[in-house]
């Protein structure tokens, strides 16, 4: 990669977390809190933070699979809330584009040039292969796909099991601690460090970068968005150093080496480099991290299911799928319609934004009986849409499933029961769906 990224590593390492920065900004500028007036404007992050989104989506599903929101802080958009409708949209990637050039994969607006000029801002795009259409998407996805084959999963499993067991053995007994920090973040950040062959002592930088990249509402605050851009440039500068160190080495199994030796990715622009790093870090970190926390919270909320897990370890593979369905660690993906069309009785126009609410599809009673209950014996749990569907289905799905399965197996081997015993704080965001804090206590069954 011949181009340079101007940001010195270390500049932002003392910055607050993304969530703390947004909280502080809104406390100092309450007038900037975004006004949501439409009853179905589910872009508002408070309904996820307060875990009260379920009845809103249930009401929409009862009335139909698509609903138009004509005004919101993120502009007008279609809510696509039904399981069948989301699968249909995902199966037509030419008609419903993922491309960053049309707005990308999140609910946020893509500002036009006049709006940017009025705000005195420059365009900051992060092209990544999940936000590309064919054929470019195909070549870049194929580059990283070999890191997630069944053979690679078999190669990685012993290491994942060793790290997981070692961590579980280190957890305190008889005291309350934060499961998110000590377990979910540590296991997933360690896995990312291995995939990138990233310096182990700096692995928590991956968590820091993931939070700033995945908290999309930050982009609505100019000062924080500028800080976010600086943090992501710093991330890219760090990775560019790793790229330079490995450019003349023999190809290795790490993701950086795969990109270096790929004709589809070894000449990426700085923005594309940053975008694909964000994709791999958020995709490999926030999603599995939040399901690891969601499993614990779900078992505590449904103790009958925890008992089933304790008595029937053969249920673990299906329990993994059910917990992924129930948690749905990424709430939505966005598509943009490329030509006028009719969709489930609604007239959708070229340029319209469609938001595919995976967390709604995973609670669709037409597909999942009693969908608001965690049921680790659910026969069709694998029909969840947490990994998406079609050409953009999560490339790392096998690795996520492996890490979650090993976690449950190693917990069971130690007869470990985890109780929620303190604060529960959810992510205040409409994209990443998960937990910031989950205070627990470990006992034995």
TrEMBL record:
SUPFAM superfamilies: Cytochrome P450. It comes from Pelagerythrobacter marinus. Belongs to the cytochrome P450 family. Gene3D superfamilies: Cytochrome P450 (1.10.630.10). The keyword NAD does not apply. Residues 1-22 are annotated as: Disordered. It comes from the Bacteria. CDD domains: CYP142-like. PANTHER family: CYTOCHROME P450 YJIB-RELATED (PTHR46696:SF1), P450, PUTATIVE (EUROFUNG)-RELATED (PTHR46696). Keywords: Heme, Iron, Metal-binding, Monooxygenase, Oxidoreductase. This is Cytochrome P450.
């Amino acid at each position: 990669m011949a181009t340079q990224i101007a940001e010195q590593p270390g500049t932002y390492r003392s910055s607050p977390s993304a969530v703390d920065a947004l909280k502080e900004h809104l406390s100092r500028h309450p007038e900037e809190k975004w006004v949501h007036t439409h009853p179905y404007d589910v872009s508002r992050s408070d309904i996820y933070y307060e875990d009260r989104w379920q009845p809103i989506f249930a009401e929409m599903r009862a009335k139909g699979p698509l609903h138009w929101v004509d005004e919101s802080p993120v502009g007008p958009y279609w809510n696509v809330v039904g399981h069948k409708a989301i699968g249909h949209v995902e199966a037509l990637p030419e008609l419903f584009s993922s491309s960053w050039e049309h707005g990308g994969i999140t609910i946020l607006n893509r500002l036009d040039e006049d709006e940017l000029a009025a705000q005195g801002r420059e365009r900051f795009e992060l092209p990544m292969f999940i936000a590309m259409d064919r054929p470019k998407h195909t070549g870049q996805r194929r580059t990283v796909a070999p890191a997630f084959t069944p053979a690679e999963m078999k190669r990685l499993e012993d290491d994942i099991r060793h790290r997981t067991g070692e961590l579980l053995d280190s957890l305190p007994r008889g005291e309350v601690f934060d499961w998110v920090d000590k377990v979910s973040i540590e296991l997933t950040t360690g896995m990312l460090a291995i995939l990138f062959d990233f310096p182990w002592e700096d692995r928590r930088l991956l968590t820091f970068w993931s939070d700033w990249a995945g908290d999309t509402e930050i982009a609505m605050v100019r000062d924080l968005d500028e800080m976010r851009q600086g943090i992501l440039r710093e991330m890219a500068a760090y990775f560019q150093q790793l790229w330079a160190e490995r450019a003349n080495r023999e190809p290795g199994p790490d993701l950086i080496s795969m990109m270096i030796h790929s004709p589809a990715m070894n000449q990426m622009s700085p923005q594309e480099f940053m975008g694909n790093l964000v994709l791999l870090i958020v995709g490999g970190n926030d999603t599995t991290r939040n399901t690891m926390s969601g499993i614990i919270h779900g078992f505590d909320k449904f103790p009958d299911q925890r008992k089933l897990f304790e008595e029937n370890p053969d249920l673990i593979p299906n329990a993994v799928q059910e917990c992924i369905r129930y948690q749905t660690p990424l709430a939505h993906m966005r598509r943009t319609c490329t030509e006028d069309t009719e969709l489930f009785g609604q007239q959708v126009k070229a340029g319209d934004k469609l938001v595919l609410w995976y967390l709604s599809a995973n609670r669709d009673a037409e597909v999942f009986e009693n969908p608001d209950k965690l049921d680790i014996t659910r026969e069709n749990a694998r029909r969840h849409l947490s990994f998406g569907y079609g050409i953009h289905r999560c490339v790392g799905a096998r690795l996520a499933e492996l890490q979650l399965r090993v976690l449950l197996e190693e917990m069971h081997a130690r007869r470990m029961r985890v109780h929620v015993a303190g604060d529960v704080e959810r992510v205040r965001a409409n994209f990443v769906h998960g937990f910031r804090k989950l205070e627990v206590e470990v006992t034995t069954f």
